[in-house]
Amino acid sequence: MRRLAPVTLVTIGVLALLVWYVIYTRGVVRELRQEASRVGLMYARVYNGLSDPNPDGATAALLDLSRYIRESGVPMILTDERGNPTDTANLPFSSSLGSKEIRNYILDLDQQNVPMVEPGVGTVHFGNTALVRGLILIPVLQSILIGMVLLAGAYALRTRGRADREQIWAGMARESAHQLGTPLSSISGWIELLRETEPEATTVAALDHMEADLERLERVAHRFERIGRPPRQEAVDLGILVDRVADYFRARVPTLAQRVTVSSSHHGDLVVQGDPVLLEWALESLTKNAIDALAGRDGKVEISAESLPEGRVRVRVSDDGPGVPREIRNQIFDPGFSTKEKGWGIGLSLARRIVRDSHGGELLLVPSERGATFDMVLG
User: Fold this and answer.
1) DSSP single-letter state for residue 232
2) Residue 79, Cα to own-chain centre: how many angstroms?
3) Helices 276-293 and 201-226: crossing angle, nearest 10°?
4) Phi, psi at residue 376, to the nearest 5°?
5) Of these four, 3, 128, 144, 269, which has the most CB atoms within 10 Å of its CB?
6) Three-state SS for 98?
7) Are 315 and 305 in contact (CB under 8 A)?
8) 85-89, strands of its sheet edge to edge
9) Distance, CA of 41 to CA of 74 (rounded, Å)
10) Domain 234-378, classified CATH 3.40.50.300, yes or no
């Protein structure tokens, strides 16, 4: 939905502009027809006045012509040879001929059109009618329309390419999960066979760990099967999820040369609607990222969950490691970006996709005095 929003907005904008353009051009055609009819009528009156043997006929024709000019709406100012205003027509304000406002408006008219000099009459300074001003805007609007169409096309092509890549990635992930199924089933069978041979205590302990790791591999394979599919909507208790993830990593972090402590805490109503498998995956990615940041040093990772006043739930993963340098904070969620030599740059990108795209939440790197702190905000 987030990806379709820009295309939808551009499409609505283009359609609205097209509708306005059709309506406006029809209005322009109507006004041009009225203008043509007035010109034809004025020509007939002037011709009739000039051909009238009555001496007052020419004067009447000139008066009709003057009235027509005023009705046309063209703003005009007539000045003498010294630049003093002698007459005006269709000005948007009322002022005396010698006022400063009139002289300033002459400059505005000259910017719109080059003044015409008529010997024996003076200089005619004239502007544009509302119709002409509208016609001047049409090329600009057409350029905007073309630009919007090109931007929409470019965005659609980019989105199409990204969708194709994600489709390939999702297909590869599901195929990998399918391929893992056979060796996992085989290993499970071997473990059952070994238990039937009455193994020693050491072997029993090893088999217990092997079964735990096998279960873990099966869960990972199941996660890969979920890539590219619609997320489930189930009631998920984030408090239980936080404790489960913390327990899993607590049993696997260094405790000898470099001691890493993983703790969890939660309080409040932490039940949200979402996909438990994907949410656990996102939280594990954040936790593993925090543990990796402590490589080679003592430290602690804290996973907490709490309800927010607006009815949402925040899950926070923080560590006391070196933190995220300011210059790369805008890149850490980009697919493929990693500061680790052998990192794939998938963890944070995947977590953000799960939280934002699949659950409509937010995954943020929040300011902290020490280390790095990530917030998953879900509703």
Assistant:
1) P
2) 55
3) 110
4) -100, 115
5) 128
6) coil
7) yes
8) 85-89, 76-79, 122-126, 116-118
9) 18
10) no
Coil, strand, or helix at residue 61? helix
Q: 354 near 297, Cβ under 8 Å? A: no
Structure tokens at 229: 């599919």
Per-residue pLDDT of the chain (379 residues; tens, 9 = 90+): 445 566 677 677 777 777 887 887 787 788 778 777 777 777 776 677 667 677 676 677 777 777 776 667 788 888 988 888 888 888 888 888 888 898 888 898 888 889 888 887 789 898 887 777 777 777 777 777 777 777 777 777 776 666 655 565 555 555 565 556 666 667 777 777 777 777 777 777 777 777 777 776 777 776 666 666 677 788 989 999 999 889 888 877 766 556 888 899 998 888 989 888 889 888 988 998 888 888 767 889 999 999 988 888 999 999 988 888 788 777 777 766 666 665 556 778 888 888 888 888 999 988 888 888 999 998 7
Structure tokens at 321: 């490691």
Sequence ranges of the domains in the chain? 4-134, 135-226, 234-378
Contact 377, 283 (CB under 8 A): no
Please name the residue that has the structure tokens 């400059």: 107
Give the residues across from 273 on adjacent strands.
235
Instruction: Tell me how many degrees the CA angle 234-235-240 measures, rounded to the nearest 5.
Output: 125
State both tokens at 8. Answer: 């939808």
Which position has the token pair 């910017």?
A: 111
